[in-house]
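Notebook entry, structure prediction.
Reason for the run: the old model in the group folder had no record of what sequence produced it. Starting over properly, with the input documented here first.
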Amino acid sequence: MNLKYQMDLDDDYNDLFVDRQERRVRKQKGKHSPKKTQAEIVQSLAEPDALEGEGKYVTTYQPSKYEATWLLQSLSDFYRQEFITDVLAMVRGGKEASVYRCAARPGLGTDLLAAKVYRPRQFRQLRNDKMYREGRAILTADGKEAKETDHRLMRAIGKKSDFGVQVEHTSWLMYEFNTLKTLHAIGAAVPKPYAVAENAILMDYIGDTEMAGPTLSTVELQRDEARELFAETMRNVELMLVHGMIHGDLSAYNILYWEGKITLIDFPQVSSSYANSQSHFILKRDIERVCSYFASKGVKAAQNPDDITRRLWKRYVELDAESRAADLSRLEYRREENEYDD
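New structure, fully documented this time:
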């Protein structure tokens, strides 16, 4: 976390808990600052002095006036830490986040990196994340769990103050980064994460200099290839379940395809299969969406999502910890048998 960000959080934190008498005095003044409109917020983000020294950062990609400042603010840590040397193009835009193709510094072992940058929270339209947050601890900017005994922090979150909202945003982002680290380490088909900043995640880029890897939803597959990729998708679903995780938004729109391989993406809403009371519903929905796509490609094994959900739930969620550990050792053996084959 950069120093400015830490100072901003400290200021917010102190403002929340000023002396009650001082607060009453301020309240009696009756001074009221109306909330900014979305247009005013966007305009403030485009002010030329919003990012000190922004001219030193190279961007072959030409962002719009209202995009430039918050983009460079979000990526400045990656420049300073010498992970990237240039922003080459936007490859994916969205209401919640956009993804940019970046030039990696020489010697990093790769030529290109992907930077996922969350849109400014003031006008980003995040979906209701309450269902996914159930059973998840609040994560701090260093990826560690916040203490539940920190009542002032929890009160700020409950009141939805500016500081509380920022804490929730940080936690949301850190869950995605930590999930990528865990899954990449155990051999899942996910991008390798390199770094995380206040508002962005830097990871493997899937694609080449001409185009980014498309989502499965836009790809035409032959039946034999579709069968193989369905089995690989379910291998990843099972890997997550072994470690108590459910993607939460898995579908052909969140799976990339490149050179015959798939890569699962977008993990901020990852849910606990044990601590979330709606985990069965979340898992069932993921599997139904995946099966719907592959069934449309002629994969017979994908035509029974209810059976697959029932089998995986019993195998990974209804077992005790010792049985789950043993099941991990049997996962690769089952892959050889390919229970998802037609």
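Summary: Residues 1-33, 38-53 have pLDDT under 50 and may be disordered.
The old model has been moved to the deprecated folder.
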